[in-house]
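Sample intake sheet
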Amino acid sequence: MTKILLSLVAISVVASATEAKSDTTVDGKAQLYYYTTDNKDKLFSNESANAGGAVTLNVSHKFSDAISANFTAIGYDSLGASVGGAMEGKNKGSLFDPEDNMAKRHTSDAYFGNANIVATMGGTTAIVGRQQLNTPMLGSFDWLLAPSHFEAGTVVHKIANLTLIGAYVTKLRANNSGTEFVKLADDNYAIGMAYSSVVDANLWYYNIDAGGYTQIYADVSEKRSGVLYAVQAVSTNYDEGDDSMAYGLKVAGEIDGWGMSIAYNNIQDRAAGKVEVDSLYTSSWNTWASDKLDNSFKVEASRKFSGLASTLSYAKYDDGCEVDVILGYEVAKNISLNAIFSNTEYTEDSDAEKALEFIGTYKF
């Protein structure tokens, strides 16, 4: 699962919607995805594999300098049983909708992920409709071929080095959940501010009635002599039961051409609340650190070799560990290949699970 820990200073959809060079712009991508694990059988066997293809089409229309409309249509196909088996024997659900398709092995469908209006006035931008969100503990999980989307209203206001962000969310289409946008109970919103100057700092407040909690997230980072120092804290106040307190530290820099980092998180009493994603420093490809109690550590190294981007990481959790090798290669300007190997021990009592994922992307 791809977890991209995002800069909180900007919401990317704002830039893409307001900087169109013509009245209408169109782009997109076509992707193929293959996954195999030794969880149920040996790697590459029919019963231990799954695959899918998807086409994403983005259309943005600029009505004026102040108003734009954006649409993202996503069509996907699970490619059938010939290249993928089952979660449980022959009755596995599809790659995209395992809960609703346990009795069939092939799914083909389409939906609108983004469908919104963007209005800009001065330093203020408002986005209303279906959209992707990028915040530390509530955001779009971009794994597989159809990332999660929200129905929401978002406002971004910039004042010099300070960015203020507010988002009110009504529905969620979770990653790997078919095409339905599910209504979230009661009130769910995020209010944040990001400051970037001598230091980078972020402060967020979440009210997530659908999860029964409120939450405060904060981080501060500074780069000195080429070395990044970062700290974070997450306090989750649940309506019922124990609350959660999380802390994190991270140091990152470069050694002999290698990007290197070491990170630490500690979570006490209960898992930290999140919606789809977290931004904790020790989260890995298959593991959300917010779900792990006590101490966790992660070391990571990355480098580019003749166009091949590589990232290697090891994370140790209180009740498991994970090793990831992530490779990316740009075949041409609009064609890329990615391969991910992961070896994950989800708990101390479970056997390590090996998995291989291959992704081919063509952008147009």
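Comment: Residues 8 and 135 are 6 Å apart (CA to CA). Residues 12-18 form the longest helix (7 residues).
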